[in-house]
Amino acid sequence: MSMQSINPATGLTKQTFPVLQTVDIPPILESIVSAQTQWSALDFNQRAVFFQNLAQVFRQSREKYANVITEEMGKLLKEARVEIEKCALGCEYYAKHAGTFLVDEQIASDASSSYVAYQPLGVIFCIMPWNFPFWQLIRAAAPAMMAGNAIVLKHASNVPRCALALEEAFCDAGFPANTFRSLLVTAAQAETIIANEHVAAVTLTGSTSAGRKVATVAGQHLKKCVLELGGSDPFIVLDDADITFATEQAITARFQNMGQSCIAAKRFIIVGAIADQFVAQFKSLVNQLRFGNPKDETTGIAPMARVDLRDDLHAQVEQSISMGATLIEGGSFIGKQGAYYAPTILDHVKPGMPAFDEELFGPVAAMVRVENVDEAIALANRTQFGLGASIWTGNANRGEAVARKIHAGSTFVNGIVKSDPRLPFGGIKHSGFGRELSYHGIREFVNVKSVWIK
Fold it and tell me: Model-level pTM?
């Protein structure tokens, strides 16, 4: 069995890699356990040196890694560069703050001395997606490893080059052998890794269906897990919003990474009489985007990551149209090769349509018209997902009041939803549980130990 690295812009296979034999997995995990014991014995300052080195490796090799991302999952090269820089910043953030986040916490009790200590769990199994192939891993690994854990990575099967490049980066940064390992394994093999006695916990970023499977296996073996799953984020435009600013931001919120992001804006809920103006300006900006080679700086429309994903998205669009949605723009394949899909606008989208009920993981914007803010809040919350949301308004206090009523892990007022190392990141409902980033994220994979002394 093998994994192929296929360029989604051309459809051509660039490289093929063998899948690891199942029999070889247990001894690898044993070696990682041994390495983790030594890694956890280092203090925070010693671990921080390695992550500062890793930040330098990312910056020094930015072009090389960005090209790997673009060639393997299709991201615009200029966006791939930003992703690598974000990885460097994430490494530096935890190198600086991990010791403070996990310092012993003194608590008064009936003891002479009592405190809470935060100690590593051991080996953490990371199952990561293809859409941000470097950043998704770093935002999980940097806090977990700074806490003293070791990492085993199973990356998405369509980004094996990214998986191996990440291991190379850790090696170049001087990390002790086997503190970070990237294994090219299948989903079935991932289940055996979760079950292995040497694995303490698992974190997954992926689809809701994948989350259910991982949670089931982890639960059977009483393993802690963190799940960051899909989303159908509402982009709520109130009637007092700056329409020009909101539409400009909406283009980025929907089409960056070709809409293949769990926190991309997907349902545009527009209040009152401004809907016609918003849709018209949004359409005008979409028409300025040109598709082409994702390495070309002038390209605005890159390919989707895989042809099958493009086809699934198109089926959702077609079904929504058949149920009454109005096609304003796009809705078709573009180009003679690769996995390109035209940026698409669906208007008059309502609950019951795939464009409203399901996650549209690609360049399709669903316009939902409502009469008032109460209806906007109700429809924003009428979803199985609860990852992120944004509210656009000329009154920040009004926006904050609306934000507090939205059922989501993150709500942004007059800003695009994003992950930030300084803030916890994660969702509710079918968008998963647990948190990444900030001090909340680093405490997910530690033993919160009470120590009582008389």
Answer: 0.97
